[in-house]
Design a protein that fits this description.
By secondary structure, the protein is mostly helical. It contains 15 helices and three strands. It has a three-stranded mixed β-sheet. The chain starts with a helix and ends with a helix. 31% of the residues are buried.
Length: 471
């Protein structure tokens, strides 16, 4: 969390390096301008907007005596709200501090409100008086593929605001995938079953879709910040637009496929959802047991092994819920201190989207063959094709992001174009003739493999040369 906090601080500071670097390190000491905590305000607004709109829907279900849908709506409204209060209390470590008013507001599910007010108060009071810096953060700034070591002086205001921003980023992810996604699925299913779409439900569906897209984008940003915690990460506006289109299309098509399948085969959607949940929940634990690793000791100070296991189970459950609807952008490593695998796995990314595409095709085909009379006036083949095209566009925007918009793309050993070229080379290699003359002619046209030793460090390169000399 400390690394992500420093990245958050650097993302919201005005960088003015000194003209005379010391020991090859530029010192940035201008802390006069701090950007407003927009992410804190947006997460708070989405939290209360979804909570209030869900409460209005519950009152409508109560008037129409729809007990089942009312109970599910209340569940998807209260469970993420309670988890958000626990997450904010855990991140800010309020249980060991004398703050009865804050704890009381958390009991009333108003924790995000008081945290937002605190963040705004820190922002408006920052800069009125000079304050000493707390620590110095050292990061590497990438520019034109070259890394420049830099140092930032971090003051009290920056550090407190960064803590609030990171806390609300995590609550946005919890709200999106433990509350908004099941709420959106439920309301879409209820709309099809009732064949009626009231205005209150339209508002709730729109809010949940915005919340899910925002949470997915935040999840991608957090993954980048944690993976590249040694670098100063700054995303351009076009990167946010690309991520929003990628995540929005991915989640919308996935949710629609699940809802259509549930309307045709209502009871079969439960095993499909449970299979996805259990697979992604136990996958990190199976890898953890296979490595014969031990539990990390830095999840929280003074926490027992039971408490650490409970926290890891909650993290794994959130990870599984994210992967049911979209790519989580991270690979959990329960033995690592950051709980995230730092290596970029293109194979796992390709495997996930290939399997998810095939699953969506299967769900849409099952809906097409077992659909109800509600879709009599709907062009079913056109709707199915639109869903598949929408998911393909989501994959296309994902590839564009990693190829052109990723802030640390120059650090990739291989990018998307290399992976596609590798697949094409494998297919071309199968068609190479077996005769010696044709094989020699074909070898001249094939590109040479990349020189992987050029990406090694000095020590690894020297070791590689010694091994070749021995051979």
């Amino acid at each position: 969390m400390c690394a992500a906090t420093e990245n958050e601080i650097l993302d919201h500071q005005q960088c003015q390096p000194s003209p005379q670097p010391q020991n090859g390190v530029d010192l940035v000491c201008d802390r006069s301008k701090i950007l407003p905590p927009f992410s804190v305000v947006l997460a708070t607004v989405l939290y209360f907007a979804e909570f209030i709109s869900a409460a209005i829907i519950c009152s409508m279900y109560n008037e129409t005596d729809d007990r089942v849908w009312m109970g599910l709506t209340i569940t998807f409204m209260l469970v993420p709200a309670v988890l958000i209060q626990l997450a904010l209390t855990f991140i800010h470590r309020d249980l060991g501090r004398d703050r009865p008013l804050v704890l009381f507001l958390h009991l009333l599910l108003l924790g995000p409100l008081i945290r937002c007010i605190e963040a705004l108060g820190i922002y408006f009071q920052a800069g009125r008086k000079e304050e000493p810096y707390v620590t110095i953060s050292r990061k590497i700034k990438l520019k034109n593929g070259q890394g420049t070591p830099m140092e930032w002086e971090i003051g009290h205001s920056e550090r407190k605001l960064a803590a609030h921003r990171n806390a609300f980023k995590r609550t946005a992810v919890i709200q999106a995938f433990l509350g908004s996604t099941p709420q959106l699925t439920l309301q879409l299913y209820a709309t099809i079953q009732e064949k009626y779409l009231p205005n209150a439900r339209v508002v709730l569906i729109a809010i949940t879709l915005v919340s899910i897209t925002y949470g997915a984008v935040v999840c991608s940003v957090l993954a980048i910040q944690i993976k590249y915690d040694d670098y100063k990460v700054r995303l351009r506006p076009v990167a946010y637009v690309c991520m929003a289109l990628w995540r929005g299309l991915e989640i919308a098509t996935r949710t629609t496929a699940l809802v259509l399948f549930s309307t045709a085969l209502t009871y079969w959607v439960v095993p499909v959802g449970l299979a996805n949940l259990l697979f992604f929940f136990f996958l990190p634990w199976v890898e953890f047991w296979r490595r014969k690793a031990s539990l990390p000791e830095n999840v929280e100070k003074n926490m027992s092994k039971l408490g650490t296991t409970v926290v890891l189970c909650m993290v794994t459950f959130l990870y599984a819920c994210i992967n049911i609807f979209c790519w989580s952008a991270v690979q959990l490593n329960l033995a690592h201190r950051d709980l995230i695998e730092k290596q970029m796995s293109w194979g796992r990314l390709a495997l996930y989207y290939s399997a998810r595409f095939l699953e969506n095709v299967f769900l849409v085909l099952m809906w097409y063959f077992f659909k109800t009379d509600f879709y009599e006036y709907v062009c079913s083949p056109l709707l199915a094709v639109q869903l598949l095209i929408g998911y393909s566009l989501a994959v296309l925007f994902m590839m564009l992001f990693y190829q052109y918009c990723h802030p640390c793309r120059r650090l990739f050993r291989h990018n998307v174009a290399d992976c596609l070229r590798c697949v094409c080379c494998r297919r071309g290699a199968r068609s190479i003739p077996s005769t010696p003359s044709d094989a020699a002619a074909a070898a001249e046209t094939l590109p040479l493999p990349p020189d992987l030793t050029s990406q090694l460090g000095d020590y690894e390169a020297a070791l590689f040369e010694e091994v070749e000399a021995v051979d």
